[in-house]
Amino acid sequence: MKLNRYIDHTILKADSTKKDIDNIIDDAIKYNFKTICINPTWIDYASKKLSKYPNIGITTVIGFPLGANTTETKVFEAKDAIDNGANEIDMVMNIGKFKDKDFNYILNEINSIKEVIGKSHLLKVIVETALLSEKEIIKVTKIVDKSKADFIKTSTGFSTRGASFNDIVIMKSNIKGSTLIKAAGGISSSDDLNKIIDLGADRIGTSRGVSLMEGSETKEGY
Questions:
Q1: How far from 203 is each of 63, 104, 112, 130, 157, CA to CA, in Å?
Q2: N or C: at which end does the chain have fewer Cβ atoms within 10 angstroms?
Q3: For 26-41, what is the mean pLDDT?
Q4: Would you name the residues annotated as active-site residues?
Q5: How many Å apart are CA 214 and CA 217, to the nearest integer?
Q6: Which domains does the chain have, with CATH numbers?
Q7: Among 62, 116, 126, residue whose Cα is nearest residue 89
Protein backbone atom coordinates (compact mmCIF):
# COMPACT_ATOMS: atom_id res chain seq x y z
CA MET A 1 0.00 0.00 0.00
CA LYS A 2 1.22 3.50 -0.77
CA LEU A 3 2.07 5.62 2.27
CA ASN A 4 -0.65 8.18 1.53
CA ARG A 5 -3.30 5.51 2.04
CA TYR A 6 -2.16 4.97 5.63
CA ILE A 7 -2.98 8.57 6.57
CA ASP A 8 -6.01 10.04 8.34
CA HIS A 9 -5.32 13.71 7.53
CA THR A 10 -6.28 15.42 10.78
CA ILE A 11 -7.50 18.76 12.09
CA LEU A 12 -9.06 18.73 15.56
CA LYS A 13 -8.19 22.17 16.92
CA ALA A 14 -10.95 24.01 18.77
CA ASP A 15 -10.57 27.10 16.58
CA SER A 16 -10.77 25.28 13.24
CA THR A 17 -12.78 27.25 10.68
CA LYS A 18 -14.55 26.33 7.47
CA LYS A 19 -11.47 27.51 5.58
CA ASP A 20 -9.32 25.08 7.58
CA ILE A 21 -11.69 22.23 6.73
CA ASP A 22 -11.61 23.24 3.07
CA ASN A 23 -7.82 23.14 3.18
CA ILE A 24 -7.57 19.60 4.54
CA ILE A 25 -10.22 18.42 2.09
CA ASP A 26 -8.16 19.90 -0.75
CA ASP A 27 -5.04 18.20 0.67
CA ALA A 28 -6.85 14.88 0.91
CA ILE A 29 -8.01 15.10 -2.69
CA LYS A 30 -4.55 16.10 -3.92
CA TYR A 31 -2.69 13.35 -2.04
CA ASN A 32 -5.48 10.74 -1.98
CA PHE A 33 -5.33 10.25 1.78
CA LYS A 34 -7.33 7.44 3.35
CA THR A 35 -9.58 9.77 5.37
CA ILE A 36 -9.82 13.22 6.82
CA CYS A 37 -10.22 13.30 10.61
CA ILE A 38 -12.39 16.17 11.82
CA ASN A 39 -14.57 17.21 14.73
CA PRO A 40 -18.23 16.15 14.49
CA THR A 41 -19.59 19.63 13.74
CA TRP A 42 -17.92 19.51 10.29
CA ILE A 43 -19.03 16.04 9.16
CA ASP A 44 -22.11 17.06 7.17
CA TYR A 45 -20.22 19.86 5.41
CA ALA A 46 -17.23 17.66 4.58
CA SER A 47 -19.44 14.79 3.44
CA LYS A 48 -21.07 16.99 0.82
CA LYS A 49 -17.71 18.36 -0.37
CA LEU A 50 -16.29 14.84 -0.71
CA SER A 51 -19.36 13.32 -2.35
CA LYS A 52 -17.49 12.90 -5.66
CA TYR A 53 -14.48 11.29 -3.94
CA PRO A 54 -15.71 8.00 -2.45
CA ASN A 55 -12.13 6.80 -1.95
CA ILE A 56 -11.62 9.46 0.76
CA GLY A 57 -13.45 8.66 3.97
CA ILE A 58 -14.44 10.80 6.94
CA THR A 59 -13.19 9.96 10.41
CA THR A 60 -14.52 11.76 13.47
CA VAL A 61 -13.83 11.69 17.19
CA ILE A 62 -16.20 10.72 20.00
CA GLY A 63 -15.84 11.48 23.72
CA PHE A 64 -12.93 13.66 22.68
CA PRO A 65 -10.39 14.40 24.05
CA LEU A 66 -10.85 13.17 27.64
CA GLY A 67 -13.04 10.08 27.24
CA ALA A 68 -14.97 10.94 30.39
CA ASN A 69 -18.44 11.29 28.85
CA THR A 70 -21.07 8.73 29.80
CA THR A 71 -21.48 5.71 27.56
CA GLU A 72 -24.94 6.94 26.61
CA THR A 73 -23.50 10.26 25.43
CA LYS A 74 -20.81 8.53 23.39
CA VAL A 75 -23.37 6.21 21.79
CA PHE A 76 -25.52 9.21 20.81
CA GLU A 77 -22.48 11.06 19.45
CA ALA A 78 -21.44 8.04 17.39
CA LYS A 79 -24.89 7.48 15.88
CA ASP A 80 -25.26 11.17 15.09
CA ALA A 81 -21.85 11.17 13.40
CA ILE A 82 -22.73 8.20 11.21
CA ASP A 83 -26.09 9.75 10.32
CA ASN A 84 -24.26 12.90 9.22
CA GLY A 85 -21.89 11.01 6.94
CA ALA A 86 -18.91 9.76 8.98
CA ASN A 87 -17.32 6.49 7.88
CA GLU A 88 -15.03 5.86 10.84
CA ILE A 89 -15.31 6.60 14.56
CA ASP A 90 -12.32 7.26 16.82
CA MET A 91 -13.63 7.05 20.40
CA VAL A 92 -11.68 7.88 23.54
CA MET A 93 -12.02 5.19 26.19
CA ASN A 94 -12.87 6.16 29.75
CA ILE A 95 -9.33 6.34 31.11
CA GLY A 96 -10.40 6.84 34.72
CA LYS A 97 -12.57 3.71 34.62
CA PHE A 98 -9.64 1.80 33.16
CA LYS A 99 -7.34 3.06 35.92
CA ASP A 100 -9.94 1.84 38.43
CA LYS A 101 -9.70 -1.59 36.76
CA ASP A 102 -13.34 -1.50 35.69
CA PHE A 103 -12.48 -3.48 32.60
CA ASN A 104 -16.03 -4.69 31.96
CA TYR A 105 -17.10 -1.04 31.69
CA ILE A 106 -14.42 -0.42 29.04
CA LEU A 107 -15.36 -3.52 27.06
CA ASN A 108 -19.10 -2.88 27.25
CA GLU A 109 -18.72 0.76 26.19
CA ILE A 110 -16.64 -0.17 23.15
CA ASN A 111 -19.13 -2.84 22.11
CA SER A 112 -22.11 -0.52 22.64
CA ILE A 113 -20.61 2.03 20.27
CA LYS A 114 -19.69 -0.61 17.69
CA GLU A 115 -23.21 -1.98 17.83
CA VAL A 116 -24.80 1.40 17.07
CA ILE A 117 -22.45 2.24 14.16
CA GLY A 118 -22.65 -1.18 12.54
CA LYS A 119 -20.21 -3.48 10.81
CA SER A 120 -19.86 -1.26 7.75
CA HIS A 121 -18.26 1.55 9.79
CA LEU A 122 -14.87 1.23 11.47
CA LEU A 123 -14.37 1.82 15.19
CA LYS A 124 -11.00 2.85 16.61
CA VAL A 125 -10.43 2.99 20.38
CA ILE A 126 -8.11 5.76 21.59
CA VAL A 127 -6.40 4.55 24.77
CA GLU A 128 -4.07 7.53 25.41
CA THR A 129 -0.81 5.67 25.95
CA ALA A 130 0.81 8.82 27.39
CA LEU A 131 -1.24 8.23 30.55
CA LEU A 132 -0.60 4.49 30.79
CA SER A 133 2.26 2.34 32.06
CA GLU A 134 3.65 -0.40 29.82
CA LYS A 135 1.72 -2.96 31.87
CA GLU A 136 -1.46 -0.97 31.35
CA ILE A 137 -0.83 -0.72 27.60
CA ILE A 138 -0.57 -4.51 27.50
CA LYS A 139 -3.83 -4.87 29.42
CA VAL A 140 -5.80 -2.36 27.35
CA THR A 141 -4.52 -3.89 24.12
CA LYS A 142 -5.92 -7.24 25.20
CA ILE A 143 -9.27 -5.66 26.11
CA VAL A 144 -9.61 -3.88 22.76
CA ASP A 145 -8.51 -7.05 20.96
CA LYS A 146 -11.28 -8.93 22.77
CA SER A 147 -13.88 -6.30 21.85
CA LYS A 148 -15.73 -5.71 18.58
CA ALA A 149 -13.57 -2.68 17.72
CA ASP A 150 -11.56 -2.64 14.52
CA PHE A 151 -8.53 -0.65 15.73
CA ILE A 152 -6.66 0.32 18.85
CA LYS A 153 -5.33 3.89 18.60
CA THR A 154 -2.46 5.27 20.65
CA SER A 155 -3.33 8.90 21.31
CA THR A 156 -5.61 11.90 21.06
CA GLY A 157 -2.72 14.22 20.28
CA PHE A 158 -3.89 16.41 23.17
CA SER A 159 -2.04 14.74 26.06
CA THR A 160 1.61 14.86 27.11
CA ARG A 161 2.85 12.97 24.05
CA GLY A 162 1.70 11.16 20.96
CA ALA A 163 2.58 7.70 19.69
CA SER A 164 5.95 6.16 20.45
CA PHE A 165 7.66 3.31 18.65
CA ASN A 166 7.48 1.31 21.88
CA ASP A 167 3.70 1.75 22.05
CA ILE A 168 3.39 0.03 18.68
CA VAL A 169 5.78 -2.77 19.63
CA ILE A 170 3.80 -3.50 22.81
CA MET A 171 0.44 -3.41 21.05
CA LYS A 172 1.56 -5.54 18.12
CA SER A 173 3.01 -8.23 20.40
CA ASN A 174 -0.20 -8.47 22.44
CA ILE A 175 -2.78 -8.63 19.65
CA LYS A 176 -3.94 -12.17 19.04
CA GLY A 177 -7.03 -11.40 16.97
CA SER A 178 -7.66 -9.16 13.96
CA THR A 179 -7.34 -5.79 15.70
CA LEU A 180 -5.41 -3.18 13.73
CA ILE A 181 -3.26 -0.35 15.12
CA LYS A 182 -3.53 3.39 14.54
CA ALA A 183 -0.61 5.56 15.61
CA ALA A 184 -1.37 9.23 16.18
CA GLY A 185 0.65 12.24 17.25
CA GLY A 186 4.36 12.93 17.11
CA ILE A 187 5.12 11.46 13.69
CA SER A 188 7.22 14.28 12.29
CA SER A 189 9.29 12.83 9.45
CA SER A 190 9.09 10.34 6.62
CA ASP A 191 11.60 8.18 8.52
CA ASP A 192 9.25 8.13 11.53
CA LEU A 193 6.35 7.27 9.24
CA ASN A 194 8.13 4.36 7.60
CA LYS A 195 9.47 3.00 10.89
CA ILE A 196 6.15 3.10 12.70
CA ILE A 197 4.47 1.30 9.80
CA ASP A 198 7.25 -1.30 9.73
CA LEU A 199 6.68 -1.87 13.46
CA GLY A 200 3.02 -2.66 12.86
CA ALA A 201 0.89 0.49 12.53
CA ASP A 202 -1.90 0.06 10.00
CA ARG A 203 -3.10 3.67 10.04
CA ILE A 204 -1.52 7.03 10.88
CA GLY A 205 -3.33 10.02 12.37
CA THR A 206 -1.50 13.25 11.61
CA SER A 207 -1.95 16.89 10.64
CA ARG A 208 1.43 16.65 8.93
CA GLY A 209 0.25 14.55 5.99
CA VAL A 210 1.37 17.01 3.35
CA SER A 211 4.87 17.50 4.78
CA LEU A 212 5.22 13.73 5.23
CA MET A 213 4.33 13.17 1.59
CA GLU A 214 6.76 15.87 0.49
CA GLY A 215 9.56 14.68 2.79
CA SER A 216 9.85 17.92 4.75
CA GLU A 217 10.14 17.57 8.52
CA THR A 218 8.01 19.59 10.90
CA LYS A 219 7.70 19.56 14.68
CA GLU A 220 4.37 21.31 14.85
CA GLY A 221 0.84 19.98 14.88
CA TYR A 222 -0.97 16.76 15.81
A1: 20, 27, 23, 19, 15
A2: N
A3: 98
A4: 90, 153, 182
A5: 9
A6: 3-214 (3.20.20.70)
A7: 62
